[in-house]
Amino acid sequence: MSTSLINPYEGLTGGQWLRGNLHTHTRFSDGVRDTQSVIDDYAARGYGFLMISDHDVYTSRTDYEKYDAKGLVLIPGNEITKDAQHLLHVNANQTIRPIAQRQAVIDAATSDHSFIIVNHPNWGRDFDHCPSGMLRQWTGYVGMEIYNGIIGRDIGSSYAMNKWDIVLSDDRQVWGFANDDSHIAEDVGLGWNVVYVKNRTVEDVIDALRYGRFYCSTGVEISAIRVEGMRVTIETGNADRIVVLGKFGRRLAVVNDRRIDYNVTEPRGYVRFECWGPGEQFAWTQPLFVSHYGSAEYV
Question: Is the model's pTM score more than 0.85?
Answer without folding.
Answer: yes
